[in-house]
Every structure is written in C-alpha cells, then in structure tokens.
Predict the 3D structure of the following.
Amino acid sequence: MTGPAPPFDRFLQYRYHQGLRFDPRGELYYTMDLSGTYNLWHQPVDARGTPGYPTMLTGWTDRAVREFAFADDARSVFYSADRDGDENYQLYRLWLRDGRTETLTNDPKVRHVLPSEPVSVRGAELLYCDNGRDASEFDVVVRHLRTGAVSRPFPTGAYWDHPRFDPAHRRILAHRENSASDTGAFLLDRKRGTVVEVLPHAGDALVVPVDFTSDGRGILLITDLDSDFLRLVVNFPGTGETKVIAGPKADIEEAAYSRRTGTLAYSANVDGYSTLYAGRIGAKFVPLRVPKGAIPFDLWGQRFVLSADGKFLAVLLGDGAAPPEVLRIPLGRGTPGSLTESLVGGVPDAPLPRPKLVRVPAPDGRSVVCLFYAPKRRQSGPMPAVLSIHGGPHLQERPGWQYGGLYQFLNSRGIAVLSPNFRGSLGYGKRFRELLYRDWGGVDLEDYRACAEWLRHRSDVDRSRLAVFGGSYGGFATLSCLTRLPEYWAVGVDVFGPSNLVTFLQSVPPSWRRFTNTMVGDPERDRDFLLSRSPITYLDKLRVDLMVVQGAKDPRVVKAESDQLVERLRSMGRSVKYLVFEDEGHGFTRRSNVVRVSREVSEFLIDHLLPPP
C-alpha cells in the first residue's frame, strides 16, 4: 500500500436519507440526519426530474422524526418522533404554509405508530396504532382531527399495524401480527362493524396488505401463503378470487401503488440485489432501468414510492461503493437520475470497489451467500479480515454503506470484510428464514464456523488476524462466536447484543413476546436450553479483547444485558472496552454519536488487526 490512508471522518461526511414520500403535487420529502438528528426535509423536483435545494421543515435536536404521511389536501403533514431512541413515538401535525407544529399525542409511555398512507383531512380522520390501552398489544385507532375523539374499531387482544382506508372510507384494512411466522390481513366494514379476514389460512403464513385497488374492489397483498417465497397477489373480497401478479423464485420485498392511475411497481430480491418492475394489474410488468444495487433495510420509513400520478418512482438504492442515493425513475420515457448527493466530503481513492457475491461451502452441502468487501489496495502479505454479522436476525446483508462506511474504511486500511446471510436471513424463502426459529446459537453458529474456515483457507488472508463484529442479534452472534468458537478470533466488537437469552426475553417490550416466543423461546419453559445457548454461560472460553457498545435507553436489548456481560468479564480480569450512550436507544439517531461510535469501533479493530505504524 502506498500513500497515506484517508481519515475515518471522510467516510462519515455523508447525508443519510430515510422515509421517502411524494406529496400530492409530486414533490419529494424525506427524513435526513444532516442537522445532527433525523428531521423532515422537502426537496422540490421539476417536471424534467431536476432536483431543487432541500429545505429542513422540522428543527428537533432531542428527537428523531420517523414515519410521516401527507394530508390529502397537501396543506399539512403528519409525523411521528421519539426522544433519545426510546421508540415511544408521539404524533405531530406540521402546517406547510407557516411551519406551525401541532402536538397530537403526548404520552411518553405509549408508542404511537403512524402508517405512511395519506391522511383523510376531508373526512377529518387520522388512522394510526398505539399500545395505550395495553402495553402488550397494539390497537387500530381512528382519531377525529377536529374534536380529538378516538375510537378503537378492531377487536382487542392483538397486535395491529399499517391500517388504511378504502377509497370511499367505508372500510379499513389492517395487518394483524400473530407471531414471527404468521400474520393476516383483515377488513373492517365501518357501517356494519364486521371484521373478516382476507386470505384466511389455517397454518402459518405471512399475509401483508399493500393497498386497495383504485375502485376499492381488490386488495393488493404480499404473501407466502402456499409458497416458499413472498409473492405479490390481488384478492377480490366480493368473489373470493385471488390472482398472482408476481411470483418469481425470489421474495417480493417492496410494492407501491397509485390509486389515481392504477400503476403498480414492485421489487424482487435476488441474492440481496433489487430488481424493479412496473405495470398495471392484468397487464405485462416490465423491468425498470436501474443501476445494480439494493434497497437498504432501515428501521423505519418508505424506501420505494410512486408519485401520485404514477409517472415515476423514487427509490433509495445503494451498491456498496458509496452511500445510498434517492433515484428518480421514470416509468415511461426518460432517463433515471439521482435526486441526492450523499457523500458530501468525497473519499480519496474513489471509486471504491463494490462487494463481490461469494458462496461459502457449508458442511451439509449448502452454501452461505455472503458479500466480500476486498481492499482496493493493501499492505504486502496476507491481510486481516472481519466477519460482520447482520442484525434481526430477519434482515439480510445487502450491498451498502454499512455502519457509517465502516466496511469501506476498513478496506482503505487493507482489511477485508465478509458479511454472511446465514440461516434465518431474509431473501431466500420461508423455509430458510424459519431454520433459525428457537435455535439461536445452533445452525447459525455452524454457518459462522464455515465462514471463518473460508477466510482461514484463503491465501490472501492472515488466519491469525480475524475479527468478528455485529449489532443486536449480530451482537449475540458475535458473543457466541467469541465464546463458543474462540480458536478463530483475534478481537471482537458487540453492539447492543443479548448476552443472556433468558434475561433478554424477560426484558423485551411486552408487545414483542408473541414474536420472541416463536423466534427464540420461552424464558421460563425453555430456561435450561436458552442458558445452554447464551454466550454468558461460556465466558471462561473467551480469549481476546472485547469492545461493547450500548444505548442506555434501548427498549429492545436493555442496558442490563451489556452490564452483566461487562461486569462478569471484568471480575474475571478480562479486557473490555465499554461505551454507553445515555441519549440513545437501539440504533443511534444522533449524528455526533454515530460519528463517535463508528470512529471508536474502527480504531479498536485497527489497533488489534494491524501492526503499529
């Protein structure tokens, strides 16, 4: 390697966009963290697709704007925001003419979840979900905008989300989540008060509503009912007929529909890359001209939206060589173009290499699909490498600017990164996704061993300088690797990962327990098994230095999970670097904290993997 390597700050000089929406006039809105936390921004786009200058519409410093939805008269926008990452979102209304903000809810112990559908101002009704009646459940709430009166028209005792009105506002469609592997779509007749299931099923299946058709007769859904992969279908409740719109041997990951024109667009997931199509129900769908890349998985917000007139699509897309950008894609004539320029500082040695798709052989004859980020330049001799394990576990490793450009920065220092899609990851069908259910620290650990062996047997990788890194479930996997596969690693980094599956399950939010019981286990009935799979049981096997990162307000993996791990290791005389962020939750929203944690993680890895300069 020749010449000085760029400082990490250069990789962090980017804008990160989430939550794309078009207003009824066709102008673009999104949330962005340029101000230091996520606020709502407006960016005009002219008829030729030329972007204008973005303007910040909210000015929060202690809260992050999450979901947002426009009033159907385009005079105001409704949005949710939480404080310090506690995920107890409150609802607000922003008047676009004068910037006045109206607070709609103010109960810091209740989570209010706003769907991203247009709000009926003419009907004077706002639809959302909250757990104010019972912390373990979520109700569909209809709020009258003039009086503030609320009603809960759907049956209680369930976890409801993503409600939407039909075009005539006579029915409400909502999604009910029964478990991690079983969901349903339900239709409420507001006059009769009856609720019927769309696509009723006896066994487990995912049935996720997308929207009503323009005439209100059909319902668009994404489902794996009678299929291993998620398909896009339309159901007609009046006749009971269901037609498959798209059912390739890949999961449908996103769909967007324009009620005004009947235009439908969708994206299929092929080995972590997104292929986009558009058309009309009953007609041929054509592939769209889009650069090779992937729609990133984010914690909130739409990343795939149609304009109200159905003439173009906006999509957030990344390829692993730069941060994701918002692309404007015409559905007819015209050339796709970027509406944003995220990497404002620029990175020396650009363009950076894109990751390569590799298939790592596993002992049972399968292969683990991975992305391999290889340095463009490196020092002489074998290079160090990091195994980076994604969270979820129901997410997928996709090409992107992960962890604030951490992979790309490590590459600039001559360190390779291997990111696996282990058993349990999204994108490879229902059977693959459910292989990890109630088997955390089992089949997944076999896949990590296969990845470590693959790295060890590469002639260009130094087998004595391997690291493992991950956040959330990926933090649990990191700790499992360090304690149960200790012979492979030189160092590890755990970002808010569960260390004890029993205490983790006892402390998750009450509304999560219907999902964690399916995915992980029951903390009382399965106590002995869960302890046998918990990293904290095997801490005496850990051989290397560890870094632990935790948000003090984390509602998903509470701080006590990291505290007990660190205290136990320090009592054993082990070296642990522990970073706690008092104003963050699960996934950091403050720009200053993202910068700090990214820098400290990268420096910790480099100090242990590279010789002193």
